[in-house]
Design goal:
2 helices, ion transport, cell outer membrane
């Protein structure tokens, strides 16, 4: 018979400073910079209890009960700390018609919390990487080309890597040390992109319909690594979406299509019993919404 005796708890208290500076050229144009301390509390992988107990039973039949102290070291993950640096600007390039934003960021993370598949292959747990670093840029542009036509575009680039991460794992029934230093942090897309536009057609006063709106956008992301080993990844992909809205004074009907090109892509990856599986993204969808105001 195996038992676990005792009670364990952790208390976290952190000081999270932030310094932000902004210089405004005028009410609509400015530059800014900020430095802030980030924090995510630690915790326990409760789902690891069964794996731990089964492992003890297989390796040490008839041994003494497992102490709570040793269990804590196995299932506990540490708090995550980060320093975040950002600088950027907001500009109005043309009054009431053209706006641009740009930002540069750098993040240094200690004990980054990442998810990993359990040794049994059933479920995932939270673990700590040693150190990681993330830097990149974001830019956006919005424009009212005419009273009827609007346009927007956004792009982001992120380079996130482990700068010091060594961990012990079981490989072919042997515990070995694996060095992930220099590998990409999983689940972080390298590129994100969106481009969209809308055309609004005003109808006559005597028309049953007040206006028609035609909206289309393209959104993409990738490359995304799913594991610390960087052996499984989703390449860059994009989906095209559109919507047509028929609007009157008290009603609106929307006809919409998502993933109009029926792009095949994965939104998630997991492993179970030594095999890898991907969760497919949503296929082409067509629908309609009706709203009526009383």
């Amino acid at each position: 018979e195996y038992t676990i005796d005792g009670k364990e708890e952790d208390t976290y208290l952190q000081f999270l400073p932030k310094l932000a500076l902004k210089y405004a050229f005028d009410p609509q144009n400015n530059v800014y910079a900020s430095v802030s301390r980030g924090y995510r509390s630690g915790g326990y992988n409760i789902q690891m209890f069964s794996d731990t107990i089964q492992g003890q039973m297989r390796s040490r039949p008839g041994s003494e009960p497992i102490g709570a102290g040793s269990i804590k070291e196995i299932i506990r993950y540490k708090p995550e700390y980060s320093w975040n640096y950002e600088t950027g600007s907001h500009f109005t390039l043309r009054q009431n018609s053209l706006w641009a934003d740009i930002a540069l960021f750098y993040t240094d993370i200690k004990n980054q919390q990442i998810t990993r598949f359990t040794k049994s292959g059933l479920g995932r747990i939270m673990v700590n990487a040693g150190h990681s670093r993330s830097y990149g840029a974001e830019a956006s542009l919005r424009a009212n080309i005419t009273d009827a036509i609007s346009f927007n575009a956004n792009y982001g680039y992120t380079h996130a890597t482990f700068t010091d991460y060594k961990t012990n794992q079981i490989v072919e029934d042997k515990e070995v040390t694996i060095d992930y230093t220099g590998k990409r942090v999983p689940f972080v897309p390298m590129h994100t992109l969106s481009v969209g536009g809308q055309y609004t057609l005003k109808c006559g006063k005597n028309s049953f319909v007040d206006e028609l709106r035609f909206h289309a956008d393209y959104a993409g992301a990738g490359k995304i690594y799913w594991t610390e080993k960087n052996d499984v990844a989703q390449n860059f992909y994009g989906t095209l979406n559109w919507r047509i809205s028929v609007i009157s004074s008290n009603a609106q009907v929307d006809f919409r299509m998502r993933n109009a090109l029926n792009q095949k892509y994965a939104t998630f990856y997991f492993e179970s019993m030594g095999r890898g599986f991907t969760q497919a993204g949503r296929p082409m969808e067509f629908g309609a919404d009706v709203r009526w105001r009383f």
